Amino acid sequence: MPWPTFCKKEEDKERKRQPAAGEVHMAYLLSNKKILGIAIGVLLAVITLTVTVVAVVANAPEKDPADVSQSAVDEPQQDPGDEPSGEPEPDLEPDNTVPDNTPVVFNNPDEMRGVWLVPGTDFLTGGNYDAATVKAAIDKAVADAKDLMMNTIIIDSVYKDYVLYKSGTAVSVPTDFDVMEYIVAKCRENGLFVYSTFDVLKTQQDGKNTLADKVDAAVLSCVTENAKAFAQKYDLDGVLLDNYYLISSGDGAAYASYLSAGGGMGFENYMYSATDSAMKAVVNAFHQGRRSIQVGLLTDSVWANKSANEAGSDTSAGFQALTDGYADTKAFVEQGYYDFIAVKAFGSRKNTATPFATVIQWWASLAQQKDIPLYAVQASSKSVSTETGWTSPAELTEQMMEAREIAGYKGSMFDSLSRLKADPQGSTTALKKLFSEELDVEYFATKLEVAKPKETTFTTYEPTVVFSGSSDPYFDALFNGEKLNRDENGYFSMELELKPGLNTFTFKHKDQNVTYNITRVVKVLESISPQGNLTVNGGTEVTVSAMAYKDAKVTATLGGQSIQLTRDTADDDSTDKDTNFVKFSGQFTIPAATSSVQKLGNVSISASWSGVTDSLQGAYVSINKKVQISDGVLVQVTASQAETFPDNTLDDLSQPDYFPLCKGSLDFVVGDELIYKEGSATYSYYNLASGRRVYSKDITTVGGTMEKNVISGLQVVSDSGHTYVKLKMSQKAAYTFRYSSGAISIEFHYTDSVPDDLALSKNPLFSSATWSGSTLKLKLKNGFLGYKAYYESNTGYLVFQCNNPPASMSGARIVIDPGHSSVDPGALGFREDYNEYEVNLAISKYLKAELESMGAYVYMNNTTNGRVELITRLNNGKSADPHLLISVHANSSTNSSSSGSEAYYFNAFSSDLAAKVSSATASALETGNRGAKFGRFYMTRDSEFPAILLETGFVSNQSEYYKLITTSYQKTIASRIASSIKSFLSSMGMGNVATGTQSVGDIAGGTAAVAVTGISLDQTNATIKAGETLSLMATIKPENATNKGVSWTSSDESVAVVDANGNVTGKKEGTATITAKTADGGKTASCKITVKGTAASVILNRSEISLQPGDKYQLTASATGGSGTITYRWASDNSGVAVVDASGMVTAKGNGTATVTVTASNGASASCQVKVASSSGSSSSSGDSSSSDSSSEPDGIVPKEEEITISRGNSKQLTYEVRPAGSNPKVAFKSSDTSVATVSEDGVVVGVKAGVATITLTAEDGSTCEWTVTVTASGSIWG
Q: CA-to-CA distance for 1270 and 852, rounded, in angstroms?
């Protein structure tokens, strides 16, 4: 039958609630004879009714005093009217209830997916009671429900004035068979659970069924008999108790019943007691009839609004069970009447009075208190209707997805089979996708999101526009009235040509409409360089460039010369891949200089495309008069490292073959200052006599002359971290550093004397040092890991400090730079909430964890608190003195089919790293390898270490974007990158640890110690949360100090602690001062740390589990930090291997590996690896017990991994093999050092602090096996 519509009671404003019976003051009664007489009369009347009640409720479920809440009727108030004031009356129900402690096993689904079978709609239509017709309709309805992937049928037991069951005294539907019995049998035949509704107050009068409007002895007897008979006859899985409200006015039957009982207790008290008595009697009758039937409460959405009762829900429902139905359903639940709750959550998510999630959350919280399931009754009857919030065909699906995130929710029941069958706009199809787990809820788009372009109205010079975004894949999306082409995830991307003038585009999806108005202005040529006045030397190559349409023909003219510009393929930090304007460049060769200045005029550039030509005028170019080198001025480098350029070109393009000159170097200026203007930037340079060009700002004149340089000594020193090539020189003459695959060479200018050659046997990097004229050649043993040059302050020696390969990964120092930041999202993907930066950060975090698990020290730039400038990023990285740096990015293109991984390098010695990382990433992403590419990105141009910029994949490509935002792919990418880094370092000679000093010539004092003069920290004030880690970076001065050892201390370790690497961890709110102190000289620097709040985190009880198909395992999550009530969202990345429900219950499906991830509402997430394998010939265990004979003795226990490395705070499941197969002895685990690593009874090891511990397994027969566990400290502030 349709849901009953209840009218509000016409409350008698003269009648108010009475105080509870427990408030009787006997002394007062005895002193007031009138009141005492009334009380005795009332008591006798109530006893008459309760004698009957006792017979039906004596065995009702026992109340647990600890569970009884203060409901609204516990302390009713009395108004001084026609009732005695202040006098309590006895309760309607007796207290002599007897608990039923018989163990019961219920039959219910893991997740309820039920649907109502409604007579008159799904069967028994048209008043036809013919058995064959009715049965055929029932058969079809049950089959339809099964096709819709329902696992439960809920039978609406009432049809018109009849009931469907033939038991008790109820008047049954006039069929010649038992309809209820037939439906139950049909459900069993189809493997479905079956529940039924049952009206609590259904009675019979004059041969008809009716709902009682009072509760007296006759009513209680009738409903009890019917409930018990119903339970005894029908083998149901559950029953939903309905229609228990007493709706009555002050002069109705209920009030008459109240008066006949003697009155005096307060009418409302009587009504509450009567409802409670009826409910308790029916529950007890079902228990007596068949206890295996689950008895549940079918409730309206609201017990009470918070405005009416502070314990109520944050709703504004028109009907409240407590005040309008005289049913304290909250108290019913708290007193343990029910085995489950089913709430009619008929409001949409947008409903302001009874929003779906608010209703479910309130009832779920109540259900959890009693450890019973909560089922949501969802209004499928409203799907795709005009009611608020129901116009979207995704409403049912999104409601269920929302409910699954609420603890205590165990599934849904749908009120209309016929509407589900109709599948309006695919609403049911989406629901089935959710049931079958084809819907990946972690990446499920529930609405139309057009990520690009961001603005809906704008003017552009672009000839095309790219639309990309996401939508709900299970509902149609229209673009300009036609079906939008999307992939299986609902992502779309298309590049459309714009006609000159206004272009209008419209998207329509579910209940959304988005219109774009884009005005195109035709402009083929956007900008050119150089600008301003340009004075150059004769014979110079001047680079000119233009930003023009990518398919344009671009030409430039200057002084009668004309050249065609070509597309520049070397990307840099200014490259915008989301535009049709690209960079074209070319070079003019300037005529030879003469004795006077020559004027060539302006650079003119034109671009033609599709019959349209644009022209722009650039710099005015003049040629300097010819200058003799001997007339040059002596200058000295003032920059720490002065970038150099070719002296025969004029542009601002960094060149990989031109390495920097260190501070103090001397050279001669040739010619006048050169000015180059590009856009709004102006650059000035000088040419040097040694054949290079430098920025004017990096040098200063020193005057005088420089004598010829004499290099009198050479020394090569190697320690565990670096090789120092030291030269004793009479002059700080300029040099030219060059790199080739087998050697580095250093040409010393203005030098006429050098020392002898030197064979190197105590060095991991070089095998020899030989001279050719004034050029020193250092032959490499393997590869090269970068260098920096400087003059030692104490000796004056020129030093080339080169990175030695690490002894192992535990000695590797690596910097990770997540591209972009929280305020600079980078390229936009298909979803507004998951841009390039989110991808970069996620992969970087996993990469950091992978590298740390290998033992490496990792520094990761903090990009979560705002924009971080490139110079800051690089300087942070340089402070870590790394072996390499990797900047993690994702690619984008106007062409949505562009795909693949690529890595950019600048210095040639970084190319192999780029190649390995690009290949590894492509393999992990299952895409094409675009390989290593040259680029001029700022993060890659420093010569101190190999550095690359990785483009993992294209966020503009639907397939790659989906992978890039998927946790499993992110982890695989990180793992493969880490392995490729290890491979690269191995190829560089990792493991070669030769050390020592070798010298030739007059350089005896070359090993003198360089004293520390100072120390500074990268931060002097910082705020972190408890549980969060911040990495402080110390810089020692001078940079060539001999002893750079630093110790760290905290002024208050209860607030913040610091480890030996400067990693500060917040412990509790407060302030502490972290001090770094140098081992040499005792110099100090401090940072004030303020700990405020708690860091968001979530921990799982297991990080790895092993199951067999069909097994289940309960994962539990514990989160800290964040605000409000923490909820959890669970997801599996491979539902063919394992699935997980809303509570964290994992079910193994098939052989393989899956990652189950929990995401807490505080933003933190954690994962557990699930390995599923069928039992085979050998036994593999993770420490779990088995059904095998526990007393069997194994031939041996063998660990699957003897050496394990984990980082501090992480965990790993120990695994081992028991032989022979089938043996499963009792085992115990023990850690040799619990301060380093602990181990649980089931073999989960947790890193506590950096160090090494041995975990020993001992079997009951005395056999043992061991694991060596190395715990590494977290090397990053973002771990």
A: 11
- CATH number of domain containing 689: 2.30.30
Q: Is residue 354 domain-shared with residue 423, that is, in the same domain?
A: yes
Residue 1041 confidence (pLDDT): 79
| Nearest partner of 959 among 453, 509, 485, 490, judged by Cα | 490
Cis peptide before 1220 (omega within 30 of 0): yes
> Omega before 1038 cis (within 30°)?
yes
So what's the pLDDT on residue 1005?
Answer: 54
Provide the token pair at 954.
Answer: 């294209």
- Whether residue 1085 contacts residue 1075, with contact meaning beta carbons closer than 8 Å, is answered with yes
Residue type, 863: T
Distance CA(541)–CA(687), nearest Å, equals: 13
- Based on the fold, state whether residues 700 and 711 are members of the same structural domain: no
Task: Report pLDDT digits (tens) over 211-264.
Answer: 888 888 889 999 999 999 999 999 999 999 999 998 754 456 667 766 765 566
Is the residue at 96 inside a domain? no
Query: The CATH number of the domain where 1113 resides is what?
Result: 2.60.40.1080
Task: Tell the residue number behind the tokens 């309809």, with chain if given.
Answer: 179
> Is residue 97 one of the residues assigned to a domain?
no
What residues does 891 pair with on adjacent strands? 954
> Up-side HSE of residue 149: CA atoms within 13 Å toward CB?
12
In the chain, how many domains are there? 10
DSSP string, 57-99: HTTSPPP-GGG----TTSS----SSSS-SS-----SS-S----
State the distance between the two ends of the chain, measured CA to CA, in whole angstroms: 58
DSSP string, 1111-1128: -EEE--EEEESSSSS--E
Give the CATH number for residue 108.
3.20.20.80
Q: What mean pLDDT comes out for the span 158-173?
A: 92
Taking alpha carbons only, the member of 1071, 1093, 1068, 1076 closest to residue 1021 is 1071
Q: Could you tell me which residue, 268 or 767, shows the higher pLDDT?
A: 767
Question: 621: which strand partners?
Answer: 534, 601
> Based on the domain organization, do 269 and 205 belong to the same domain?
yes
Residue, of 628 and 490, whose pLDDT is higher: 490
**What is the CATH classification number for the domain harbouring 535?**
2.60.40.10
Both 418 and 529 in a single domain?
A: no
Q: Which segment of 258-272, 328-342, 624-638, 796-810 scores lowest on mean pLDDT?
A: 258-272
| Each residue's pLDDT tens digit, 470-495 | 888 878 899 999 999 988 778 899 99
Residues 274, 313 within the same domain: no
Q: Tell me which residue of 255, 247, 282, 259 sits closest to 56, measured CA to CA.
A: 282
Q: Is residue 143 part of a domain?
A: yes
**Residue 142 and residue 178 share a domain:** yes
Q: Is residue 9 part of a domain?
A: no
**Domain ends where: 471, 491, 520?**
520
* Domain final residue, candidates 257, 277, 296: 296
C-beta of residue 752 within 8 angstroms of C-beta of residue 773: no
Per residue in 673-717, pLDDT (tens digit) is 999 998 889 999 999 999 999 999 999 999 788 999 999 999 999
Domain identity same for 604 and 617 = yes
Single-letter amino acid, residue 1044: K
CATH of the domain at 920: 3.40.630.40
Answer whether residue 621 shows pLDDT above 60. Answer: yes
In angstroms, rounded to a whole number, what is the distance separating the alpha carbons of residues 116 and 416? 6
Kindly report, residue by residue over 183-199, the tens digit of the pLDDT: 999 999 999 999 999 99
E strands within 150-264?
A: 152-155, 158-159, 162-163, 193-199, 202-205, 208-211, 238-242
Task: Report if pTM > 0.85.
Answer: no
> How many CA atoms, within 13 angstroms, populate the side-chain half-sphere of residue 485?
6
pLDDT band at residue 204 under the 50/70/90 scheme: confident
Range of the structural domain that residue 1208 is part of: 1196-1272
Q: 386 and 467 share a domain? A: no
Task: State residue 361's pLDDT score.
Answer: 95
Structure tokens at 260: 């006949």
